[in-house]
Amino acid sequence: MASSSSPAAASGANVAEFTVSELSNAVKRALEDGFGHVRLRGEVSGYRGPHASGHCYFSLKDDKAKIDAVIWRGNWSRLKIKPEEGMEVIATGKVSSFPGSSKYQIVIESLEPAGLGALMAQLEERKRRFAAEGLFTDERKRPLPFLPRVVGIVTSPTGAVIRDMLHGFRERFPTRVIVWPVRVQGDGSAVEVAAAVRGFNALQPDGVIPRPDVLIVARGGGSLEDLWGFNDEIVVRAVAESAIPVISAVGHETDWTLIDLVADARAPTPTKAAEWAVPKHADLLEQSGKLGLRLTVAIRRVLDALRRDLKSAERGLPRAEDLAALPRQRLDHAAHRLDGALRARVQRCHTRFFQVAGRLPSPRSLVVQHRQRIDATGVRLGRALSANTQAHHTRHVRIASRLHHRLLEVRISRAADRLDGLGRRARECLGKTASVRRARLERASGRLQPAPIRHRVERCGERLDALSRRMQRAFASGLAERRQALGGQAKLLSSLGYHSVLARGFALVRDGTGATIRSAHAVASGQVLEIEFADGRVQAEAKGEASAGRASRGGPPPSGKAATSVPKKPAKGQGTLF
After folding, report:
1. First to last CA, the chain
2. What predicted TM-score, i.e. pTM, was given to this entire model?
3. SS (H, E, C) 410-457
4. Closest by alpha carbon to 197, among 162, 231, 234, 166?
């Protein structure tokens, strides 16, 4: 019995059978149940970036062994540190297997660098590479604007950094601040910071959101892992390509990142970055006052020096009276000569005019002369005619038979007509000459008439009338304004006077001297009072003494006492003026 069972047991005839899938799944469950979550330290090998599906496949190795690693797409986006080829990391995850190839692997859920040594080595490598490209040279750094109109800040909107910076701006110099909210830690922070820097540079200076004059990239202090996003290549190159000057304010004074080296200025703290971005308003006022005082003193000194030089030059120059004496004498001499020459010329013209006028015959004498000439001509003509007549008579007598008297009459009539024509021409010439001389005399006399003076006097009179009318209008307008102002003051007096109060039912109480009584305690028993109403005044005599309790409670006055001895409490909402 024993011999027959041993071969069967040795051959495994009673062992349960498994399929390949069942065995693979059993091994997978055994690995997952046996190890659970582990922390595995190793060097990244075979990293080629995320797969098309979003998963990431690579290996972790050390000097003796190697294990496959996988990061699912959901965990990849939440990783703080992304794997890089040759990077030493500490991976946290579950040990499992892939049944399709019967290989075990680690499914990574979180990834962190294996100590500061790896991060520092990677940081130094990037620093050497960027320095070789010339991104850290001082020649490419630009000066910060003295007084920026707009300041752009790239930081988290929920942290204490932005509040401290805004407080610093309010304390020093209030200016317009534009905040671009980003994540400053964790996955995706580097991409958001780079996008913010490039977004600020893409703004237009005159757009709805103006382009900042200076940028501040700010974050509070933290560990190297917390600040690792500001060491990313995309952030460094975005800051290097920025056309706007950038101030790096990442971490505390002892912290440093690659963005500090490529930025145009590095502030030890975010608050100090706000102080660097804008000047202090009080310092500007003090500096402006000092410069203004220096400018005033310098101007005064220059003016004093110029005044001294002017006085020195003035002492070397001759007096103005001496310089003008000789030209003034020449001017007086020339004026005297010109006056004498003008007088002499006027006198000569006057004398010549009278000489010419004296040589001209008068119209009457001309007529007489022409008449004498005509008479003499007539006498000579008569004599000649008589002689001619006599000669012709003789001839006529001799040739009477051949001539007729009509021929002589015709010739005589022609001579008379010719004589009349010559007389008319003489009279016309005399009239033209006299009219020309009369016109010249009238023109000369027109220049000596007082018409221009009369015209000027008339214009001055018209101007005086216009000014008088303007004065009357201005006086009437001013009088109307004064009357309107007086009416307004009268209405104001009427509204503020006590008579309007009396018209509403109040009364004014005076004592015997006319002084106003404002309190019931000021009235003595038997004192004569004068009560003024809106329609008149009455005399009254006070009886009894004032009762403060009744006055305060507003009760009726006691019987037999004058109502004026106790002041009546005014109604609710209605005050008293007395």
Report:
1. 139
2. 0.39
3. HHHHHHHHHHHHHHHHHHHHHHHHHHHHHHHHHHHHHHCCCHHHHHHH
4. 234
Quick: pLDDT tens for 218-251: 888 777 777 777 888 888 889 988 889 998 888 7
C-alpha pair distances (Å), 58 with each of 35, 80, 89, 492: 21, 18, 13, 97
Burial code of 239-260, b = ≥16 C-beta within 10 A, e = fewer? bbebebbbbbbbbeeebbbbbb
Q: pLDDT per residue over 71-86, tens digit each?
A: 998 888 888 778 887 7
Q: How far is CA 267 from CA 216, 251, 381, in A?
A: 9, 9, 140
Place of tokens 């065995």: 23
Rounded CA separation 576/578 (Å): 6
* 498/514 Cα distance (integer angstroms): 15
Can you name the CATH fold of 121-279?
A: Rossmann fold (3.40.50)
| pLDDT tens per residue, range 332-383 | 788 888 878 888 888 887 777 777 766 666 666 766 776 777 777 777 776 7
Predicted confidence (pLDDT) per residue in 411-465, tens digit:
788 888 888 888 888 888 888 888 888 888 777 766 666 777 788 888 888 888 8
Q: Report the amino acid identity of residue 196.
A: A
Torsion of CA 230, 232, 233, 237, to 10 degrees: -20
**Torsion angle of C-alpha atoms 49, 55, 58, 61, degrees rounded to 10:** 120
* Residues pairing with 98 in the sheet: 103
Closest CA to 510 of 535, 528, 526, 534: 528
**What is the C-alpha to C-alpha distance for residues 439 and 452, in angstroms, rounded to an integer?**
20
Half-sphere exposure of 86 (CA within 13 A, CB side): 3
> Please, which residues have CB within 8 angstroms of residue 248's CB and are 6 or more apart in sequence?
217, 239, 257, 259, 260, 263, 265, 266, 267, 273
Of 75-84, 158-167, 292-301, 541-550, where does the model show the most confidence?
Answer: 292-301
Residue 113 in contact with residue 90, Cβ under 8 Å? yes
Please check whether residue 70 is in contact with residue 61, taking contact to mean a CB–CB distance below 8 angstroms: no
What whole-number distance in Å separates Cα of residue 270 and Cα of residue 276? 10
The CB density around residue 262, as the number of other CB atoms within 10 Å, is 25
355's enclosing H/E stretch is helix 320-359
Specify whether domain 20-114 bears CATH 2.60.120.260. Answer: no
Q: Which residues touch 82 (CB under 8 Å, ≥6 apart)? A: 111
Residue 558 reports pLDDT greater than 60: no
Determine the Cα–Cα distance for residues 501 and 575; give it in Å rounded to an integer: 11
* Among the listed residues 159, 314, 279, 286, the one whose alpha carbon sits nearest the alpha carbon of residue 226: 159
Question: What whole-number distance in Å separates Cα of residue 345 and Cα of residue 355?
Answer: 15
Phi, psi of 547 (to 5 degrees): -115, 110
Sign of torsion over alpha carbons 5, 6, 8, 14: positive
Q: How far is CA 432 from the centre of its chain?
A: 81
